[in-house]
Amino acid sequence: MNRSACLIFNPVAGQGNPEADLAEIRAILEPELDLDIYQTTEEVGADQLAREAVERGVEAIIASGGDGTLSAAAVAVIGTDIPLGVISRGTANAFATALGIPDTIESACQTILQGVTHNVDVAYCNDLPMILLTAVGFEAETVERADREAKKRFGILAYILAGVQELRELESFDVEIETPDKIIKTTAAAVTVANAAPATSVLAQGPAGIVYDDGLLDLTIVAPNSKAGAIAATYHLFQTASAKSAAERDDIGYLRANQFKITTDPPQKVAIDGEVVGTTPVEIKCLPSALKVFVPSVPEVEPVEKLDGLPNLVIELKEPTEE
Ligand SMILES: Nc1ncnc2c1ncn2[C@@H]1O[C@H](COP(=O)(O)OP(=O)(O)OP(=O)(O)O)[C@@H](O)[C@H]1O
Questions:
Q1: Helix or strand or coil: residue 8?
Q2: How far, in Å, CA of 11 to CA of 129, rounded?
Q3: Homologous superfamily in CATH for domain 3-116
Q4: Distance 117 CA to ligand 1 centre (A)
Q5: pLDDT of 126-163, one tens digit each?
Q6: Which residues belong to any copy of the DAGKc domain (predicted)?
Q7: Which residue has its alpha carbon closest to ligand 1 atom 28?
């Protein structure tokens, strides 16, 4: 008998063709899985569909959509033993990238069929579940500015445009950060607490390389004193994250703990996994190994060589030499 799974599909996510996407998913998965397919609507979201699937006692839930759909489905399986399959079709694909899951339909489906699962941490921010990160200040404002219409038209550029617009109005705030063993007070423009984060979430990248199964959260403080400083700090984080080395500027700080309490003056907007949910203060706690996801059996490795496309390229393979 085939394994079974509930597929939750958002037909409006991303910029692709939803009918073609769904047909491709079915063509790959249905020979090996009995799929029960539910599409999200404006009224019935992935959160409700996933909760109902959990209540029906499904063997697995597969979510396909943008980061909003994936996070909502993930929340329903926190603390259960039901594995989550991720087929990312959004704009930013932060969820899949942060957890090392491929973001093409073909590879994402193969990952699910291979059946390898891994338990990752999640966190709670003021009792709201968080899989990736909570942004306080700058990034939370940016999320709010990148609306659906802009995302449809400009894709990932919408976030960058929103960020540039936000930079023009950069405002710092006083922040108090409390961990189980210390209280830190400083001035910041952005505070980000990450459980898991893709490299593109630059403001989360203070320590570089956010580990999603260590039972800990990484907090990054970005505290530039001018707009030029903000651009330089952001660029530095982008570079250090790409090189997988920790940030080294004085206006960037980072620390690791299993919980944080963040208070700001004045209150700042707070976005959890890309959705603005309210304002500070927030209390964020890590819940170790609470989410079971299908992951590639061999972790994706970054290519160490790229030569394709170089002009007049010739590659000659040499005979192996005896040492
Ligand atoms: N059938 C539908 N019609 C209109 N809106 C829908 C429908 N199904 C889901 N939605 C809305 O889609 C949103 C979630 O979108 P999702 O995050 O999956 O994609 P996205 O916004 O394109 O991706 P990303 O967040 O990566 O940019 C929710 O706000 C939900 O209300």
A1: strand
A2: 24
A3: Probable inorganic polyphosphate/atp-NAD kinase; domain 1 (3.40.50.10330)
A4: 26
A5: 989 999 999 998 776 666 666 655 655 555 565 565 66
A6: 1-129
A7: 68
Q: Tell me the CA–centroid distance for residue 69 and ligand 1, in Å.
A: 7
Pocket-testing residue among 38, 49, 64, 69, ligand 1, by greatest number of atoms within 8 A of Cβ: 69
- Give me the interface pTM, i.e. the ipTM: 0.95
Instruction: Note the pLDDT of residue 102.
Output: 93
Residue nearest to atom 5 of ligand 1 (CA): 42
The structural domains of the chain, with segments of one domain joined by +, span: 3-116, 128-288
DSSP secondary structure string for all residues of 208-264: SS--TTSS-EEEEEE--SSHHHHHHHHHHHHHHHHTT-----TTEEEEEESEEEEEE
pLDDT band of 313, cuts 50, 70, 90: confident
For residue 228, the model assigns a pLDDT of: 83
Quote the tokens at residue 63. 């979510």
Nearest CA to ligand 1 atom 31: 42
pLDDT of residue 156: 56
Whole-number pLDDT of residue 302: 58
